[in-house]
């Protein structure tokens, strides 16, 4: 993470200036100048000193290196992998696309999400012409599942708490798709935090690096375990709670959601909701469950009851075949 040295230099100049003014006030012979001057300039100097200390801590956090090992792997990039990876990549478009659609050419986080002016903060261009052009497949897999950059520092705002659950096959499919995308634009600018951004790191740590993730296998399709895998990978609990209990949707409401938000627009070839916003949830679920690009009609929708007891996970709700099922 690059440092905005201009803002750091301004902070240090102000600290030195008010420190010097504090000494001048302390050496003043008239009490009416000495004590008010010492209090005012001393408080400003102390405040600037604390800002400098916490900014240094923030910059250290941003540039701390991790030692997660990089797997020596080369993704085969078969047509089946690329097709599955494209479906899975729909969960990435919110951050890595300026228009919330694939191709993943990156976006300006501050402009798109209304971040405070912390400096320069862009999500990287993930096409072959972008920021990952010189990354190995192992480095990409480590970044996706563990939130670690090629240079070892932590990535920021990377949802590794969900992506860390990706199976080996699915994360390799994503890498295959990233390599197969059309080369778009150019690398996004290098992220660079100013003093405000460094201070912000002490209030809300944006680092998301996790310990190394070993080999992960997805459960067999058409099982409740596979349903839990989908829930974990899609991050459903972020919105619906740890027990998937909010908001409450009854059986009829869920049927209506699947019928009117998934099936009609898939048949019509549309990708946006009634207000014109891109809708990624049906695509993402279809990708995780191995859905093929075919028309989904009411007969395709099969609602199963929620499991009883404390587990409350969803059973498989569609008949979309999984690649491993032939």
Globally, the shape reads elongated
Q: How large is the count of helical segments?
A: 13
Q: What is the count of β-strands?
A: 5
Which CATH architecture of the largest domain?
Answer: Orthogonal Bundle
Order of helices and strands: EHHHHEHEEHHHEHHHHH
What strand line-up does the widest sheet have? Answer: 1-5-3
Notable traits:
3 domains, Cytochrome Bc1 Complex, Chain D, domain 2, mainly alpha, two-stranded antiparallel sheet, 326 residues, three-stranded mixed β-sheet
Describe this protein's structure.
The chain has 326 residues and is mainly α. It folds into three domains: 62 residues; 115 residues, Cytochrome Bc1 Complex, Chain D, domain 2 (Orthogonal Bundle), CATH 1.10.760; 102 residues, no CATH class. A three-stranded mixed sheet has the order 1-5-3. The chain has a two-stranded antiparallel ribbon with strand order 2-4. Helix 1 runs antiparallel to helix 2, helix 2 packs across helix 9 and helix 3 crosses helix 8. It starts with a strand and ends in a 38-residue tail after the last helix.
